Every structure is written in C-alpha cells, then in structure tokens.
Amino acid sequence: MKAIIFAGGTGTRLWPLSRKKSPKQFEKIAGDKSTLQLAVDRLSPDFALQDIYISTNIIYKDIIKKQLPQIPAANFFYEPEKKDVGPAIALIMGILSKVHPNEPVAILWTDHLVKRINIFRKILKVAGKFVRKHPNKIVFIAHKPRFPSVNLGYIHLGKKNGGGNGIEFFKFEGFKYRPDEKTANKFYNSGKYAWNLGYFVTTPHFIYDAFKRLVPNIYHNTERILAFYGKKNYEQELKKLYGKIENINFDNAILENLEKEDASVIVEDIGWSDVGAWEALKEALENHPYENVIRGKVYLEHVRDSLIYNYEDKKLIVGVDLDENIIVNTDDVLLIAKKTSVPKIKTLVESFEGTEHEKLT
C-alpha cells in the first residue's frame, strides 16, 4: 500500500508563525515536530519509507528534504507553480498509474493532528485490504462530529455496508461543504453525517481514469507531461506544461461527480483536529474548553480560555486578566487578537501585499 501526503498549503490563518517561505506544515505547532513530520510518523511502521510520497511546491524543496531525510528523493513530487490540489493529484496518480495502477493508495494531508493513532492505522489497513479486492472503488475516511462545525465539510452516510476487524463501512450518499449554523446543527443531531477529512483510500488507476472521464482537459495535459517522466528533460517540460493545466479543486472536479455506488465510508473517532487556524489549534490541544494553551516562556495570572505562544527564548510574556485571547510572539511580529477575531487574520495578511509589511507575510 502507498500513501501520498500533500504539503503545499500556505496557512495564512496561522500567521505570524506560518509564512509564505515556511508555511504551517513545516512549523512546530504541537510538540517538537512539524505537522508534516507527524503525518509521516503516523504511518510508521505499517508503511515502508519507499511507499510514502510527498507532494509540495518546488519552493519548499530544501525545507522538505531537511525535515524528511529518510524519505527517498524519488518520492518527492514538486509542483513548479501554485495551483489547486486537482492538478497535483492528477499528476501523482498519473505517475503511479503507470507503475502501480491497482495498488491501494491513501491520500492524506499535513495540517491535521491525530490523537488516536492506533485506530487511524487500523482504518488504513482495513480500507487498503478492501481496495485491494475492489480496485475500482474508493473509501472515504470520515470522523464522528464532536460539535456542529460550520467550518468543515460533511459526508452524508447511508446504511451500513459491511466492514472488518471492528471497522464498519457505510454507503456513501454525498457531500455537503461548510453548512450554515442551522444546517450544521441538523446534521450533527441526525447522526447521519460525519466530518469530511479529505482522507481516502483508492487506486491510482481509479482516480486517473476518473480524470479521463470527468475532466479530460486535465487528463490530456497531464499525459503530455507524463510523456517526459523519467527523462532528463522532465523537470523542464513539467515547468513549461504544468501552468497550462486548468486550476480546479479536486473535490469539485472528481469526488462530487463520482457514482455513489463506487464509494464507501468509514466513520470513527481518531482524535482528529484541523489545525489550520489558531482557535482550531487551541481546541485540538486543550483538555477542557476554558483551559489555556501555552508554549514557551509564559506567565499568567487570572487568564482564561486563551492560547499564548512565545517563540522568543529571551523574552517572557506576562498576561493578567485576559479572556479568550490569541497571543503569538515571533522574532519579528507580535499578534494579539480575540479568539473570535481569528478569521480576520487571513484578510489582514492579504492586505499587507504591496505595503512595507509584505515581507512579513
């Protein structure tokens, strides 16, 4: 079984820690390893290093190799320019379909935390075993909702549809992306919807063939690139041709257009959290809702429900009488915001472009 970890996002909602030159997936936001390194660690020992692939942007080549020296160089796929994930998945699945067409492959992401790793590994094994027997199927890995989130997508669950080793399968009835508050509560209370993590297990042939059927322009442009794969001028041709590929979200291009009978869903509680923003990171790391989450040299008096991260060893952050705050101190930026104001950070950072503060983005 293979695994592809995508690590190309920019992560502006975790600014000022996450920057264009070093996005969140390369930073230590939970413990002493980056979320990229943690994503690789979660696959050990079930996956051999030669079966783990990393997809990222070429500008992160050096940092990726430094953080993952154990991964073979041939297993890194570099996008020559930033595009949505659709073209990136088409390229990798196109390459793997030439050499491992019916080998089960797991699609995973870097900006997540998973606490119940043993269950996560078990799910991958069960899904991989199923896909090996049914190479023209896809298994979505979903999560039991902890609350009615309006920031996550949902998978509509059908009836139970088999399983094994204590893991149940459900029929797939469709997606719903980021519902409003009323709909999210309805989903949560119904018990018929689960959070969509973007994780799935399938085969390269199944996905690449789906591109051929559903997005033929991406398929044919990818085929032009693959004609040079393994040749000396591959990187040159990739750089020249990749920019001509349509920029489209993978979910919109492929997943939303699959036949329902081609998919099954596994729903479990793997202790998953999306740490794409500071308030989400706090929710992932806290033991109860009003607990403070701190890192570095921090001293607090009468502070409640706050995240305070200090990345300067020579400076002490002191907080007194604070509630629901996000404070992040780096060597060149100090961010202070109410927890409820975190969604504004992305817009703020984008407004720095073309100004004297652009270098801080």
TrEMBL record:
One of its GO terms (biological process) is GDP-mannose biosynthetic process. It comes from the Bacteria. Transmembrane segments: none annotated. InterPro entries: Mannose-6P_isomerase_type2 (IPR051161), NTP_transferase_dom (IPR005835), Nucleotide-diphossugar_trans (IPR029044). GO terms for molecular function: mannose-1-phosphate guanylyltransferase (GTP) activity. Residues 2-286 form the Nucleotidyl transferase domain. This is Nucleotidyl transferase domain-containing protein.
